[in-house]
Amino acid sequence: MNLDELRSLLARHARPDTTTAIDGVLISKVERRAPPSPSMSGTLLALIAQGAKRIALGDRVYEYHAGQYLIASVDLPITGHFTEADPERPALGVGLTLHPAAVAEVLLEAAPGDLSPAAGGAPSGLAVSTASAELLDAVIRLVRLLDRPRDINVLAPLIKREILWRLITGEQGAVVRQLGLADSGLSHIARGVRWIRDHYMRSFRVEEVARLSGMSVSAFYRNFQAVTAMSPIQFQKQIRLQQARLLLATAPNDVTGISRRVGYDSPSQFSREYRRQFGAPPSQDAARLRDATPGTAAALV
User: Fold this and answer.
1) N or C terminus of the chain: which is more exposed, having fewer CB within 10 Å?
2) pLDDT digits (tens, 9 = 90+) for 163-220
3) Coiled-coil intervals in this record (predicted)?
4) Do residues 300 and 41 lie in contact, with contact meaning Cβ atoms separated by under 8 Å?
């Protein structure tokens, strides 16, 4: 695969905030390895052109290198860091936000027999594969549009659809296809994930979220763990701790108040679980967060 052109394009167009002139396209350039950082994954395709990255989701670890891509089909609490990056050879990556409606439109245009049968059950929310020559070619043509701004509005949507088709018919097609199916197991779990994320401060019963997701308790619990590598309660704890970390970056002296704001009744339990998650007590960790708050999209790209 010819990654040289993609590396050159990404190095030239990288910005500090990862955004580009093409809606939903992100570019990352990282010159130094850093400790693992927590964030939310978003739903996106992330392809590495240079360097390597490691992502942890629950007890699962995913690594991807130059020429490989990662799919995130659910917005998940992850911890990640680049394992290969330095000023002479920075890590370079490109991301494309995946929208369920866009995936659904492509699926509707597929002819009968174009797609292989989907496996049963909900797939993992993260998956890694090597990019095919066709997928890499489409990604390069999409990034090339940054050199021709006049072409973006007309051509970018067409190339994005091509990329989706390459993903849908590729090795991780089942993961991407479920993102666009309104009644897939993944869509039901995504509904539960969104509810927990939006109401992370309050206690809940798994039965309650299963009902909101339109699944039986046993099916919800089984599929939730398959997608997120966590139980619903563990997932809630990850969201609470990540949110607390973001709040501490701006209010490092209000550990007790922040612990209550994210849903903890016991400050000591909060401090204990925070230290277990991030390797330092809240007040100590807050001191090193003031100048660097983890991003969302940059977690994967």
Assistant:
1) N
2) 999 999 999 998 898 888 877 778 889 999 999 999 999 999 999 999 999 999 999 9
3) none
4) yes
